Amino acid sequence: MIKRSAAWCLAGLLVLFTGAAWAQNRHQNRVADEKLVAQIDFSSWLPETFRVSPDNKRMAYITQMNGKQLVVVDGIEGRLYESIAKGSLMFSPDSKRFTYVAQEGKKQIVVVDGVEGKPYDGLKTNPIFNANSKRVVYVVQVDDKVCVVVDGNEGKLYDDILTTGWGKIIFDSPDRFHYFARKGNSVVLVEERVE
Asked: Which structural domain range is residue 24 located in?
């Protein structure tokens, strides 16, 4: 019995030392390649806003300057705004396009590929891209109504677009999407095709 326990202890120690030697060897054989993506002024950036494109080749973040904010994409500074919506920075699925939401006064502006859209009283959703990255969609407030904006073009006005829980804008194909809207006391399914 003592011989068997000693054998098990010896086997356990052998496995432990072999495993430790293997782990040390494994780390010694690691090779890491580094590629410079950009230089960042870490004194003024907002780290929680850092975004990387799906292909890992592009990056964006919000930085502060003179009490205002701007977005830096691939090292290029955008326009200064009163503020930028932190959760709004988004690369398209193909990594070629980029969008965010800026605040100027009481208006919100969607910026797509560096081009400002129309200022709105408010946005109900951040902009999203469809699967092939060609369309940008978001929901805006227009007076006391709301509508879906596709590529800068406003759709039909509704009392509300149901964007929480099960109700959100869903792309069925690159040019077709649907959502639920409120008209008075009714909820309607809206299916749209963009030509």
From this structure: 1-32
Strands 115-116 and 145-150: unpaired
**Residues listed for the chain:** 195
Cα separation, 177 vs 132, in Å, equals: 13
Q: Looking at the structure, do residues 124 and 106 belong to the same domain, yes or no?
A: no
- 61 and 12: one domain? no
Domain count of the fold of the chain = 3
In tens digits, the chain (195 residues) has pLDDT values of 555 554 454 444 444 555 555 555 556 788 888 887 777 888 888 989 999 999 999 999 999 999 999 999 999 999 999 999 988 999 999 999 999 999 999 999 999 999 999 999 999 888 999 999 999 999 999 999 999 999 999 999 999 998 766 557 888 888 899 999 999 999 999 999 988
Q: Are residues 84 and 126 in the same domain?
A: no
Q: Please tell me the pTM assigned to this model.
A: 0.78
69: which 2 tokens? 């904010």
